[in-house]
Amino acid sequence: MYYKNILEVIGNTPLVKINKLNPNPKVVMLAKLEFMNPGGSIKDRIGLPLIERAEKMGRLKKGGTIVEPTSGNTGVGLAMVAAVRGYKTVFVMPDKMSEEKRNLLRAYGSKVVVTPTAVSPEDERSYYRVSDKIASENSNSYKPDQYSNPANPETHYRTTGLEIWEQTEGKITHVVIGMGTGGTISGVGKYLKKKNPKIKIIGVDPVGSGYDHYYRTGKMPKLFKTYKVEGIGEDFLPETMDFSVVDDVVVISDKESFLIARQLAGKEGILAGGSSGLALAAARKVIRKLKTGLMVVILPDSGKNYLSKFYNDDWMRDFGFLDEKNETIKKLLNKKLHFITVQSAATPAEAVKLMRQYQISQLPVVENKKVVGTLTESILIKSLYGNSKIPVSVAEIMDRDFISLPETASETQLAQALKEKEMVIITDKQGKPLDVLTRIDFLSNFSV
């Protein structure tokens, strides 16, 4: 069996059980991995329907140009269609989107125009208005406009909603979906409500977007706050957003979104984007309140487009998303292979031999399996050279004033300790020594 082209591969993405990050094992939590689509996101689904609608209406002709405002993923979906059907593409993106996304679109042969993020939709510099201008100034060009095109929610009604219903054998009780254009939640919600009106449709909105305010008041807020999560939330109400199928809206911050996405990779082996972290963070809040059920959370795209952003520790620190107080030193211990010690009764020469053998410059000194001191190169030099009396044992020269920290200590605590001592003894919860960390171990944790 083979497919005639890449577009036939789109859809039928798998449901995968969330285990470690599900805080309520009484309720099954399943993640729909939309990054398994060939272009890497849920937006692959709407690319072909948007273009087929234009072709049927006579709006897009052979050799024409597709112009679209996008956070990146819809652009990829359209770019794949353009490659197969022979169209040109121009995509307009806000400047907060990752460089990986821009380069990805260029890899498909698309032209990318970057616009300011922190402007209103009506501003001439917004990616909505710039795309309008480009489309109007170029003959034989067409703007599908995912924000108003009915093919957007219709696609999710026909495919995504249907798949979820069939994959769960109709047992689904809750679905959690991030709200961007509104196409996914509107289409999926409409289909599932038709199948079973009792199914709860939960929308997720980032802090700074206007959807939650609109859901609760019927009006968009007058003031908006910029946020870092990409491809989600809005500062206006798209025609493709249907709140009649939404049962509740949960608001999630940038920090929550990014930290949960990172945990998803580290604990479940699923590398997903920030909007996936946002959806999963909301799902975790909702599922805690349930007694029974089966929840599906949609993960829209892959984390590969965000390696330079929230998967990068320096980027996270720059924006204050990594709470250093919660960053323990455990990850530094994983890099150490051996806990090398020297007995207090050993000679200095034996200590030097150990240092040479393992290419280390510090040693914990133990006696009866307990750390009683530390030994460094500087101590050995001072003791062995220039002194009339050569020490017989390590115990005579070791530094008894050492510092120990539990493995749960923060990086900040370690940094403070290493300002005073060249090495710090790390212990487990029971006080048993596990390892030593040196200044170079700590500094190696930072990219220079």
TrEMBL record:
GO biological process terms held by the UniProt record: cysteine biosynthetic process from serine; cysteine biosynthetic process via cystathionine
SMART domains, sorted: CBS
Biological pathway: Amino-acid biosynthesis; L-cysteine biosynthesis; L-cysteine from L-homocysteine and L-serine: step 1/2
Q: Which reaction does it catalyse?
A: L-homocysteine + L-serine = L,L-cystathionine + H2O
User: Which Gene Ontology cellular-component terms appear in the entry?
Assistant: cytoplasm
Q: Which residues form the CBS domain?
A: 333-392
In the Enzyme Commission scheme, what number(s) does this protein have? 4.2.1.22
Q: PROSITE patterns per the record?
A: CBS, CYS_SYNTHASE
Q: Which family does it belong to?
A: Belongs to the cysteine synthase/cystathionine beta-synthase family.
Q: What is this protein called?
A: Cystathionine beta-synthase
Q: Which organism is it from?
A: Candidatus Gottesmanbacteria bacterium GW2011_GWA2_42_18
Q: What is the lineage of its organism?
A: Bacteria, Candidatus Gottesmaniibacteriota
